[in-house]
Amino acid sequence: MGKRPIDVGLIITTVEDRDRDWILSWPEIKELVVLGESVGFDSVWIPDHLIHEPEGVERYGIWEAWSLISALAAVTSRIRIGPHVLCTGWRNPAMIAKMADTVDEISNGRLILALGAGWHEPEYRAFGFPFDHRIGRFAESLEIIAPLLKTGSVTFEGEFSSAVDCELRPRGPRPDGPPIMIGTIAGTPLGGWLGIERGGNRVLDLVARYADLWNCPIVNDPSLIPGIREMIDTACIRNDRDPKSLPRTNGVAFNLPGWESTPGNPNVRERRLAMGAREGDPAELAELLLAFAEQGVSEVHVQLDPETPAGIEQFAKTLEILDQ
Q1: ω before 85 within 30° of 0 (cis)?
Q2: In this structure, what CATH number is given to the domain that contains residue 26?
Q3: I need a labelling partner for 84 at 20 to 30 A (CA). Which of 39, 49, 191, 253 fits?
Q4: Exposed/middle/buried for 30, CB within 10 Å: 0-12, 13-18, 19+?
Q5: Is residue 31 within 8 Å of residue 311, measured between CB atoms?
Q6: Are 149 and 180 in contact (CB under 8 A)?
């Protein structure tokens, strides 16, 4: 957005509120995204889950991400669009590349293909997907998706996935396909909150080898970035990649004025509050985002509460300050 020192994306929380028997409808999602585009957000992100089943909480659902992304590609014209992040464990990897090139065509080159291995076992079990060897399956998926998008063809036969003499035809608007963003949770604040511990360097090594961008979910405090940055910088060096060649992104949760009096999903709000969702006037929020930029973050993805047109219009004042 011109002089803006850091790009700002909008996360749409498309999860069910069972207490109110409510979820954002397609017309409401469309309204939020079109408004977000008009006020100057750089990107919009749709979470990819099937169900949530936190301990002690009744199971609640979520709209399927890729269907929404495809529809949003057709009703917007400027804003970049991506999943946050697409779980490769639920979709054939060659088909993911095919779908990505097609949605990139629909959006005229605005898709960011954000990928991850997934982590929430109940949704794998409920929908019949294997939860074993998640990282091994993810690695094989990347060995198919990345060359298909970058070169248009691949032959790969692995333990879990295969694509023999596979070719992408026709190609979308970008010869190298949409950029690949890889999201990781282990070793991040969200991973700590969810009890997901780092088990090694396998996923970080995959980031260094395959990603055009890296995403670290919800980091509400810019002072935490150096430690997180060191984690991925080390992986880049270990894989003979210049750390400066990998743009960094992360999420930030904001509670805007009026959020407490606006209905909202209690489970989502509990997590946001536990992780230190930020508050402040537009200038203070802009200053916080600038602090992320100073730590080398190229884009933040914001979760707003209230997640309403009024909330987006409130946050637009922060975007205006960033553009000055």
Answers
A1: yes
A2: 3.20.20.30
A3: 39
A4: middle
A5: no
A6: yes
From residue 122, alpha-carbon distances to 53, 54, 276 in Å are 6, 9, 26
Handedness of CA 76, 82, 83, 87 (dihedral sign): positive
Q: How far apart are CA 60 and CA 51, in angstroms?
A: 6
Print pLDDT tens along the chain (324 aa).
458 999 999 999 999 999 899 999 999 999 999 999 999 999 999 999 999 998 888 899 999 999 999 999 999 999 999 999 999 999 999 999 999 999 999 999 999 999 999 999 999 999 999 999 999 999 999 999 999 999 999 999 999 999 999 999 999 999 999 999 999 877 777 666 666 666 669 999 999 999 999 999 889 999 999 989 999 999 999 999 999 999 999 999 999 998 989 888 887 888 888 888 999 999 999 999 999 999 999 999 999 999 999 999 999 999 999 999
Residue identified by tokens 């930029």 is 293
Range of the domain at 176: 7-322
CA dihedral in degrees (185, 186, 187, 191; nearest 10)? 60
Distance CA 185, CA 163 (A): 28
Is residue 1, in this structure, part of any structural domain at all?
no
Domain count, the chain: 1
